[in-house]
Amino acid sequence: LPSEPVRIGFFGEMGGNFRVIEAVADALIPANAELHLFSHSTGNERLRIASRSNVYDQGSTDPSGLRGFFRAKMDLTLIPQDFESEFFDLRRSCFPSKLPEACQIGLPLLVVGPREGSPLRWAAENLDEPAFLDSMEPKKLAEAIRRLADAVTWESQRQRVALARALAMELHRWKLQAI
Questions:
Q1: Residue 111 in contact with residue 119, Cβ under 8 Å?
Q2: Do 41 and 13 form a contact (C-beta atoms < 8 A)?
Q3: How confident is the model at residue 179 (pLDDT cuts 50, 70, 90)?
Q4: Does position 86 have pLDDT exceeding 80, yes or no?
Q5: C-alpha span between 144 and 173 (Å, rounded)
Q6: pTM of the model
Q7: CB neighbour list of residue 40: distance below 8 Å, 6 or more residues apart
Q8: Please, which residues have CB within 8 angstroms of residue 98's CB and are 6 or more apart in sequence?
């Protein structure tokens, strides 16, 4: 593991993803990692997660400076999708705009969600393990974070994200045209 903590950045809406974000927070200490939250979400769930060890609440998302900040200060970008069953049809078919935005940042991704969800299916087609995980188990999350922190794996994943960027942008454009 690197001597410095792995810096994981999350941006955007936290609603509907609190359980996955909290599971990642549970894995931070064993993974020697930090989670930096950039969100306009409010409420007790955010406060609970932000009060955890190695979690840093950076306030609201500022889109104009987010890409540069992530590139300069973060090592990974977290893309969570919760596992709750009542929204499963939506999770399976809805491609989140956060994914192409994260690809534009250009950092390796950590995509966590149900295997049938659109973000994990996309990641399984375009990225290599350990960049995607269909588990909220802290031990598995910590292992994935540690593997992504390896210099060779990190560079390989960064290159895979660069290659996948065009596809993610095309899917996002298609989604916008369909609305």
A1: yes
A2: yes
A3: very low
A4: no
A5: 30
A6: 0.86
A7: 13, 60, 61
A8: 11, 12, 79
Written as six digits, the tokens of 7 are: 């810096």
Look-up: residue for tokens 């590139």? 71
Scanning the chain, the segments in alpha helix (DSSP H) are 18-31, 44-50, 63-73, 88-93, 98-105, 118-126, 138-149, 151-178
Is residue 161 very low, low, confident or very high in pLDDT (cuts 50, 70, 90)?
Answer: confident
Return the closest-CA partner of residue 160 out of 130, 134, 140: 130
61, burial (CB in 10 Å: exposed 0-12, middle 13-18, buried 19+): middle
Q: pLDDT at residue 103 above 90?
A: no
For the chain, give the longest Cα–Cα distance.
Answer: 46
Q: Which residue, among 115, 122, 116, has the nearest Cα to 96 in the 3D structure?
A: 122
Q: Name every residue whose Cβ is closer than 8 Å to that of residue 51 and which is 6 or more positions away in sequence.
A: none
Please tell me the distance from the alpha carbon of residue 173 to that of residue 4, in angstroms, as a whole number.
38
